[in-house]
Amino acid sequence: MLGGLYSFAQEYPYTIEKEDIHFRFIAPNTKYDNYTNNTQITVECKREMRINDPNALPYLSIPESFDPLYEDYNSAARTSGFYLDQVKIKSIEIKIRRDGKYITVVTDAPQSHMIRVFRESDLLYGEVPELRYPIKNLRSDDVVSIHYIISFPQILNQHEFDSFRIFFHGKVPKQDVTYRISKSEAASIVFNYVNAAEPHFSYKRDLITDKWHFDRLPSITDENCSRPYLEVPHIEAITSLQTFGINTLRNKIIFDNKESISIGSTYKKIHAS
Known about the structure:
Elements: E1 14-26, E2 40-51, E3 59-62, E4 88-98, E5 101-105, E6 111-119, E7 124-134, E8 143-153, H1 158-161, E9 163-167, E10 174-183, E11 190-194, E12 201-204, E13 208-217, E14 234-238, H2 248-256, H3 258-261, H4 265-271
Parallel strand pairs: 1-10
Antiparallel strand pairs: 1-2, 2-8, 3-7, 4-5, 4-8, 6-7, 9-14, 10-13, 11-14, 12-13
């Protein structure tokens, strides 16, 4: 399956040649307090995509989901897909590499696509913006490079980040993939490494960081009736005990077992005195 990545690359509108994504969960307070969660989430994404179909990437949409199997199971009136509240774009850069030269894409005038949603933060219907950065006049064999950093408050985005998944694989094949997840000691989040997704390396500096690297990853949406969540490595994250419904007991079990599965557990085991 992995060996077919290059042979079938042309079947995809584009492929990812390099991807480096870093999630940071930072809480300024020093005491763990689940009822006054002030964790700030920052996502930094670097990605290089080789274009096969010039119409494959008309724009870059921010924010984007990092779960390729994401589905919205709300009622039709509330269905909105993936969205985040109060997103700050700290920086963004888009370049096109063509014939050995770089073309910089203008990013100072994104299109604001408004999405009508049921806002969990105030329990009212309203609109949230999805920013779209146009990428025009692409050609086959162009390489589109993107680099952006966004941040948003966890407490206002519990509808997406109360529990969520991070997949290393995606809808198209990837090469040279690096993921990092960092957290401060006070950040209220724990992780479950599914299907042998334990970190390849862990270290502690200002933050505790877990790191993964993969050389080749095939698409996980190729086969009908496949169940990637049962087969491929990925991360399940729980950010709060304020979860109601059938998952409450499961979430509590994960929190109770936080020492063995929380981020940095690999670091703690390796560097234990």
